[in-house]
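Sorry to interrupt, but I need a hand with the structure work. Please put the record directly below this note.
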Amino acid sequence: MDLSSTFRSRSPFLPSKLNSPSLHPRPILSTPKPPLQLLGTRRLTVVAAAAMKKTIEGVSEELNSVASQNLDYAAARRRVRSAFVPVHQQLDHLLFTMAPAGVRTEEWIERNSKGLEIFFRRWMPEPGVKIKGTVCFCHGYGDTCTFFFEGIARFIAASGYGVYAIDHPGFGLSEGLHGYIYSFDELADNVIEQYAKIKERPEVKGLPCFILGQSMGGAVTLKVHFKDPHGWDGMILVAPMCKFADKIADEVKPPEPVAKILTFLAKVMPTAKLVPQKDLSELMFRDPRKKKMAVYNVICYNDRTRLRTAVELLNATEEIEKQVDKVSSPLLILHGAADKVTDPAVSRFLYEHASSKDKTLKLYEEGYHCILEGEPDDRILTVLNDIISWLDARC
């Protein structure tokens, strides 16, 4: 069944005030209670998973119940996201409060060549504003294009760009087992496939086209570039997840013996959640007030890393290391100088060894990993304006 025509012209997940006034969202669905006869392992697993999730302060018991459900599959993640959109709109975060008026939004779902439903989101300048170019987004590990990126995309769109984003398979509102990456190559192939269609859309066809990758999305972006070196007019990498000369931060890199064990176990039980997940929240957001808001990103994957996912991430960064000299596209790298999740020294190494004739590196003093979401307001605006200035100079 082709879903593109079903969802292309309306948003099935957002309230109507964010879309056309004549459109209506799907009703919020509460999580159905399991029948009493389900007393086996599956029910116990679901109940245990719900019990492990922290209570979200400031929202109702009903919303907490919705958020506590098993998010392994896209249908549940879509219900949860739909329920929390009104909450997101009330957050006192610069990315939500500064949302420019007039930006047009749209979202839809299409099946990719593997048969998976892929979630798309689009932000366009207000009517009458000439579109300068296209920016296509690759989100980071566990993340989605529907929370903090909403404000980032609106800022870029208000500056004259068409912004497009997808949720990777297994993340956000796209199909696939939550947090599971079977193949990093397939992740990159899906990005190429989906954005090839975007480039042919009449509103942006023929315009300069850039790809923006954040954290793990930076590694995806580099893989996309290696597979399709002439497919983009430039790359923007924000705190990219890469590994060069063992410089990746010690806080997130497993020891070599552990990595070998993970590789073996990933062949036996690839989807198992056995890789310890350190609490990185203190390392992600420098602004404590903004760190507290991350809990409202209710469909992000924040459980233990699945075995095959961990191995794919490690292998991908090692492969990127071997090809760094093949980076030839116009390149903008942005990184917090105090980032302990992805090492800024890696970005400096990438900048120095990339063969790109047009390359720029910006390191932000005291900046943590989430320089577009977790910094003080003035720093977030500085990074956003640096992106716009770089784009404007190339369009």
Q: What stands out?
A: The chain has a mean pLDDT of 85. The beta strands are 104-111, 117-124, 133-138, 161-166, 209-214, 234-238, 273-275, 305-306, 331-336, 359-364. The longest strand covers residues 104-111.
